[in-house]
Write a structure and sequence with these properties.
Elements (H helix, E strand, L loop, with lengths): L2 E4 L6 E4 L5 E5 L2 H7 L4 E7 L3 E5 L3 E4 L8 E5 L6 E6 L5 E5 L13 E3 L23 H4 L2 H14 L1
Parallel strand pairs: 3-10
Antiparallel strand pairs: 1-2, 2-5, 3-4, 4-9, 6-7, 7-8, 8-9
């Protein structure tokens, strides 16, 4: 599964070497403020599975309600956010699914922070949804958990 994407102006282009470990549709207030939208869809990838084809996104440190670090990587030319590093883990990236050439290629595995979901957003029937967050070992596939563990250990 090789997917490509990039920013709005094309200065930043990337290729993903595989499918994601897991994909969240986040409805938290931070994501709403930072995107100017009702939610963000983030596909979680190991940083080394993201190949930059063109350009170099610039990190911007964002304030968060949790106080944990959150760097959003944006195109220096157009400002489009292409991925994030949440919690100071540079070995993981949260790729903005909307920046894929085909954003229909990755669907959310779960909706999180639905306690602050805007009331007019209707979730798909049967979609896993959590008021705050979920237990990873219950939601993620064994392969996704193994990939996350390997990325964490590799970063040590």
């Amino acid at each position: 599964m090789a997917l490509e994407g990039g920013c709005a102006c094309g200065a930043v282009r990337y290729r993903l070497a595989s499918g994601p470990m897991f994909t969240n549709c986040c409805h938290c207030r931070d994501c709403q403020r930072q995107t100017g939208s009702a939610f963000v869809i983030n596909a979680l990838y190991e940083t080394d599975r993201i190949e930059l084809l063109n350009g170099e996104p610039k990190p911007y440190r964002m304030p968060t309600d949790s106080g944990r670090p959150h760097d959003i990587y944006r195109c220096a030319a157009c400002g489009a956010a292409v991925w994030s590093d949440y919690g100071g883990r540079p070995y993981l990236r949260f790729v903005r699914v909307g920046t894929l050439d085909d954003p229909t290629a990755i669907a959310p595995d779960a909706h999180i922070f639905t306690r602050t979901k805007l009331p007019w957003v209707v979730l798909p029937e049967g979609a896993p949804a959590f008021e705050i967050f979920y237990e990873m070992d219950k939601q993620w596939s064994p392969e996704g958990l193994a990939r996350r563990k390997a990325a964490s250990e590799k970063a040590k």
